[in-house]
Structures are given as structure tokens and as C-alpha cells.
Amino acid sequence: GRPRETAWEGVKIMTILSDMYETAPDAVISSALMDYPEAVIAVAEYIANGEVGGVHRMSWSEGNAHWADLHDAVPDDVIAKLAEIEKELLAGNIDVYTQADLFADME
After folding, report:
1. Which residue would you say has higher pLDDT here, 9 or 67?
2. Cα(31)–Cα(98) distance, rounded to whole angstroms?
3. What is the per-residue DSSP string for 50-77?
């Protein structure tokens, strides 16, 4: 192939926001997905309750982010460790800092 194609041959990637596995199954391991319908409903509820401003966090620690299928590209022991970390995140046992935290410090 062309030099650029050869340079990327065998490279594996993780994508975000949408599951791109079907687009490039030889390259995509998985995708980090956000639960956007949950976010839209939460923001609509804030507005309906008369609340304005603020930040709606999207992260594993908030329970509204997750991995798409790992497509057998990741060993079982790694998947088990990811599940353990996710459980600890949801339990609040791991400190998580987001962009919103950085911006809050600027106010």
C-alpha cells in the first residue's frame, strides 16, 4: 500500500462519542459512549424546576458513560479490572476531576 496506509497498518484505537467499530473493525477496539438521552432529560428537568446555569457532568463516575462492546479485543482479566474500577467509581471511592472542576476554579 501507500506509505501512509502502511504506517497505520495494525494500529488499534479507542474512539469516543459513537461506536465506530462497524466502520473500521480491524482498527477499533471499542468506543467510550455517553448517555446523551439521560443528559437531555436531566437538563430539561432542571429547566422545568426553574433551575438555570450549572454543569451536567458526563463521566463514568456519574454513571452516564460506558464502553461499547470490546469485541473480544481485550483480555478477560482486563475487562474484569475495568468492571472493578467502574464499580469503585460509581461507589464514589475514586476521586474524579473533570473539565468542569477546572473551570469552577476559574470563577
Report:
1. 67
2. 19
3. T--S-----SGGGT-EEE---TT-S-HH
